[in-house]
């Protein structure tokens, strides 16, 4: 691996790159010499409490303003268009943030719940183990352990019939 870049921990992907100012904590990125993949190992030792305290907190909206309304509405539209006319769908939005995507899909007449490790959790006990459609928008590039996240989805969803829609950013 080779050094690629360094940014301050408070860097945002919005137009205002540092909406909360500089924190003074460097996050180093590296590039794989074999394939060019760019990554950081900065978060490898983060525990769930670290994620909640430093990232997914009340100021998260400052660094990701589309989180509250725009992204959930777009995601709900995409999912609803895929599922339009399908019968017997019991859906789960894994990593569904504030739960708005699932709420909008429910309003469109499709049974949909939300589970987010750091946000809304409205899984129905009667639907647990029966979800046959699962969406995961912008999840696996944000999870500290993608394999564990996928295992969690598989525990929650139907063992017999399941479609997972994974959409990267």
Structure description:
The chain is α/β, with parallel strands linked by helices and 169 residues long. It folds into 2 domains: 2-63, no CATH class; 66-167, Rossmann fold. It has 5 helices and 7 strands; from the N terminus they run βββαααβαββαβ. The protein has helices at residues 48-54, 60-63, 70-83, 100-107, 146-156, and strands at 2-8, 26-31, 38-39, 90-94, 111-115, 133-137, 163-167. The chain has a 4-stranded parallel beta sheet with strand order 5-4-6-7, with helices on one face. Strands 1-2-3 form a 3-stranded antiparallel beta sheet, with no helix packed on it. Strand 4, helix 4 and strand 5 (111-115) form a beta-alpha-beta unit. The longest helix has 14 residues, at 70-83. The protein is globular and about 50 Å long. It starts with a strand and ends with a strand. The model has no long low-confidence stretch (mean pLDDT 90).
Distance between the termini: 24 Å
Largest sheet: 4 strands, parallel
Q: Report the helical percentage.
A: 25-40%
Beta fraction: 15-25%
Note the overall shape: globular
Secondary structure tally, helices = 5
CATH T-level fold name of the largest domain:
Rossmann fold
Provide mean pLDDT, rounded: 90
* Quaternary structure: single chain
The CATH architecture assignment of the largest domain turns out to be: 3-Layer(aba) Sandwich
The gyration radius over C-alpha positions equals 18 Å
| DSSP strand count | 7
What are the low-pLDDT stretches, counting only 5+ consecutive residues below 50? Answer: none
Query: If strands are numbered along the chain, what order do they take across the biggest sheet?
Result: 5-4-6-7
């Amino acid at each position: 691996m080779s050094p690629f870049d360094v940014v301050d921990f408070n860097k945002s992907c919005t137009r205002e790159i540092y909406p909360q100012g500089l924190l003074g904590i460097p996050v180093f990125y590296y590039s794989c010499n074999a394939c060019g993949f760019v990554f950081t190992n900065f978060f490898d030792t983060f525990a769930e409490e670290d994620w909640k305290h430093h990232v997914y907190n009340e100021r998260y909206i400052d660094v990701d303003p589309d989180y509250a309304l725009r992204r959930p509405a777009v995601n709900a539209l995409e999912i609803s268009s895929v599922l339009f006319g399908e019968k017997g769908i019991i859906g789960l939005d894994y990593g569904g943030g504030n739960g708005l995507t699932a709420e909008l899909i429910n309003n469109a007449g499709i049974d949909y719940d939300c589970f987010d490790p750091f946000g809304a959790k409205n899984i129905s006990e009667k639907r647990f183990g029966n979800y046959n459609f699962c969406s995961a928008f912008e999840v696996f590039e944000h999870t500290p352990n993608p394999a564990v996240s996928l295992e969690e989805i598989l525990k929650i969803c139907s063992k017999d019939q399941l479609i997972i829609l994974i959409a990267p950013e």
